Amino acid sequence: MDSDFISHGLAPAEEPLPPYSPFEPSAESDSYTDGAPTWDPPQPPEWLEQPHEPGFVATGPTDMVVSSSDRSTQATQLLCPTKGINLKLEGMTATKVAVRIDNERKYNGLLCIAARFYHSPIPLGLGGSPIRASSSSAVEKSDQVHVGFTATPEHADSHKAHAELDLILPRDAATVVPSLVFRLPANSLLEVVDVESGVVERIDVAVVSGAVKLKHVNAGSLRIAIGNGYIKAMDVAVSHGSAEFVAMRGKVHVSKCTADSHTVRVNSPDAPIKLVNIVAGKLLIQVARAAAGISSVAADIITVESVSGHLNLEDIVARVLKVNAVTSPVTGSWDISELIRIVVASAIIKGHLAIAGSGANAYFATSEWPVRLGIRNDYVGHFDVKAANSVVNLSLAGAILSKDQPHHQQGTVGNGTNMLRIESTNSPVVIDSY
Fold first, then answer.
1. pLDDT one-digit tens code per residue, 70-90
2. Where does residue 372 rank: exposed (0-12), middle (13-18), buried (19+ CB within 10 A)?
3. Which of 424, 427, 386 is nearest to 406 (CA)?
4. What is the pLDDT of residue 45?
5. How far is 243 from 125, CA to CA, in rounded Å?
6. Rounded to 5 degrees, what are φ and ψ at 67?
């Protein structure tokens, strides 16, 4: 059915839809039911309820069923889960989308998209019907089914349409859904809950503004991007791809993300981020003017880049940790086995460092602000500490000095191959053991 096209009108122009209160997402809400539709999706067609052989899966998209009532217009599409789903909404706002699993197996292995459409009252003084045109379409291509809903208001300055959409994934399907791709308009809420491993290969979300919430989601790969809003992910995992979270403005909160040997990437120029309980091969973080709170992380390589927001990296275990910042204070505790490099143009560096093993390199550099480090008392190796135009206060247990000057101290602790280097300009360096 390559390039097949199915199109339906959702509501005739002469039949206005009822008023609807726009959804205003709460950035701090902990609820995972906000996005649940307030209506019951339609029952599956009668032919689906007939007995089928085990493992039965329908082929190709079914016709979209469209119905109107005094309250709203509904559209239902049943799709074969063997192809990816690309869902796009246009000309709408305040959209709620909920992704859930067909635990009752009502749809017999098919993927169901059930939508309901409303419209805000048109401004006073403007006559005519609120919707000039509305349509839906399902275009099946070689690897994806593109499903689109469009609503165009009668007047350019009319309020846009609102929608609630429920996407129901099959449980114990014969094949994994290759991809779920969402493109959602301004002031939208997307919730994905209780998606187990083996249900979806890839989840790709882009939202203009609003909120995206994930809870107990396990996919092959994951990408969540929002222009202005809130990303909250609790207990998410990827099996062989990357997990990526992007927010230009708003907030990012990820609590328990498991990527094993794969990559977790967070890009948040002006949105504060909070990451807790992260397990990954690589953790890549880019922030600009926002603060970043990162704790309880175990990764092979961690890279953090920042301009001015406070970086708190607490309870970090890694082989390599690299931090580059301009005026971002860097604090925390770090357990490193090979390399730690924290370079700040002008801000304080303060924390606790543990070096596991031998042959590791630790380098800290800043200016105009002090460096205050506690080094775990099992450290063995060399140290070279400089404080140009200031002083060094070094109290490492067992240290033997080969150079002892107020602003420059070198020496060794025990017999090891680790190397600790610290450079500060115009501000003191304070080092002790813990």
1. 455 677 778 888 888 888 877
2. middle
3. 386
4. 52
5. 49
6. -140, 150
Residue partners of 316: CB distance under 8 A and separation at least 6: 294, 295, 297, 302, 332, 333, 334, 335
How far is it, in rounded angstroms, from Cα 17 to Cα 153?
11
Choose among 302, 317, 410: nearest CA to 355.
317
Compute the half-sphere exposure of residue 310: CA atoms within 13 Å on the CB side of its CA: 7
CA-closest candidate to residue 75, choices 168, 12, 137, 133: 137
User: Alpha-carbon dihedral of residues 212, 295, 316, 408, nearest 10 degrees?
Assistant: 120
Distance separating the N- and C-terminal Cα atoms of the chain: 68
Q: What is the pTM of this model?
A: 0.83
CB 167 within 8 A of CB 115: no
Tokens 């192809």, residue? 83
Sign, CA dihedral 103-190-184-226, equals: negative
Type of residue numbered 153: P
Token duo for residue 237? 């995992």
SS3 303: strand
Taking the C-alpha atoms of residue 228 and residue 212, their distance in angstroms, rounded to an integer, is 11
The alpha carbon of residue 292 and the mean position of all alpha carbons in its chain are separated, in whole angstroms, by 14
SS3 159: coil
Contacting residues for 389 by C-beta, under 8 A, at least 6 apart: 407, 425, 426
What would the DSSP string read from start to end of 77-105? EEE-TTSEEEEEEESB-S-EEEEEE-TT-
Residue of 366, 336, 339 whose CA lies nearest to 350: 366
CB atoms within 10 A of CB 112: 21
- Measure the CA–CA gap between 144 and 87, rounded to whole angstroms: 10
Tokens linked to 107? 């749809």
Residues of the chain with pLDDT under 70: 1-73, 118-142, 150-161, 173-174
Instruction: Give the closest residue to 293 by CA, choosing from 319, 266, 318.
Output: 266
Rounded CA gap, 253 and 64, in Å? 37
Q: Radius of gyration over alpha carbons of the chain, in Å?
A: 28
